[in-house]
Input
Amino acid sequence: MRLLWLPVLAVLLVGCTGAGGMAKAPTPGPTPTRGAVSEVDRAYIGSVCNAFSRYLSSFNSATQRDPSLFSDQARLLKTAAPILDSFAKDLDKAKPPKDMANFHDALVERVKTIATKAKGGMVVTPEELAGISKGAPLPPGTVRDRLAEAAANIPQCAQSGGTDALFGDTGQ
Output
């Protein structure tokens, strides 16, 4: 089960790298003050959690049907590629609040890039995927805390790990 989370976490961690080293990462502006949770926040984080839940369910189903995927990296990537494509499309449908737009766009682009690499067999191990998130910029803590509050009463967010799966524990 622990191996199952490695590719999932890798995708999410990679998404937080901004443009993934290919282009300039989003530059954080001044730290916004902590605002109240808005309907835009709730709708956005609900869409993201739904997308992540569908991704987890699809990936879990595929690996439960064929547990040997973890011992064959090429087959694992071939199986993961269309799941990642769907995940990117689902994420792309989410409409982020203005203070999350650049990070959200970077997340979508990273998932698309990983899906493309997985299709081509260019990604060798899940560990490599996780490694490219090192030093990744994150949205300001006030934004992450606000989204964590917005996610608090959304069942799909609880099932998918909530905003901690995307941004780490904000300490809220």
Observations:
- The two ends are 28 Å apart (CA to CA).
- The helical segments are 2-15, 39-65, 73-93, 101-120, 126-131, 141-151, 155-160, 162-167.
